[in-house]
Prior knowledge:
The structure is a single chain. The chain is of the alpha/beta class. The chain has a single domain (about 15-160), classed as Cytidine Deaminase, domain 2 (3-Layer(aba) Sandwich), CATH 3.40.140.10. The protein is built from 6 helices and 6 strands. It has helices at about 20-30, 70-75, 105-110, 130-140, 150-155, 160, and strands at about 10, 45-50, 55-60, 85-90, 115-120, 140-145. It has a 6-stranded mixed β-sheet, with helices on both faces. A hairpin with a 5-residue loop joins strand 2 and strand 3 (about 55-60). Helix 3 (about 105-110) packs parallel to helix 4. The model is unreliable at about 1-10 (pLDDT under 50).
Amino acid sequence: MLAGDAPQGMEGDSGPTSTDGKFMNLAIAEALKSTPVESAYCVGAILVSPSGAIISSGFSRELPGNTHAEQCALLKLHDRKVAVGATMYSTMEPCSVRLSGNAPCAQSIVDAGIARVVVGVMEPPDLVVCDGVRILREGGVKVDRLTGFEERCLAPNEHILKHS
């Protein structure tokens, strides 16, 4: 078993589930599809139904318009109602500020009725100060940080982090 295959630990509102590691690994695979740019992180997201089925996925800049991973996962839904009660796995804390004019991902997650967000790392302060977890929790979303995945979640972002 590779490091990061199973939940190492959890910080947040609730304990890890037996599938958190599996879905975070899939989110990391999505992040690796992102084309690196100097002004944005490479993030991956997986949206999972309450029954445990993957209902969408996304990665940074997958769709036109300077899109973020969580935004792509939501935009690709045929019926946004399926997001209600779901869990979003994201390699990085969902954004609270968008310089592009798009809606912040944290607010979009709240608006979609997603019940839980599991993040691999908090957003580093290299580009903006992120307050996504606070927005999610104030919006009634449970937030957990899955520990043991930090290195793999940050790896697609060496193009930004090496300059820090």
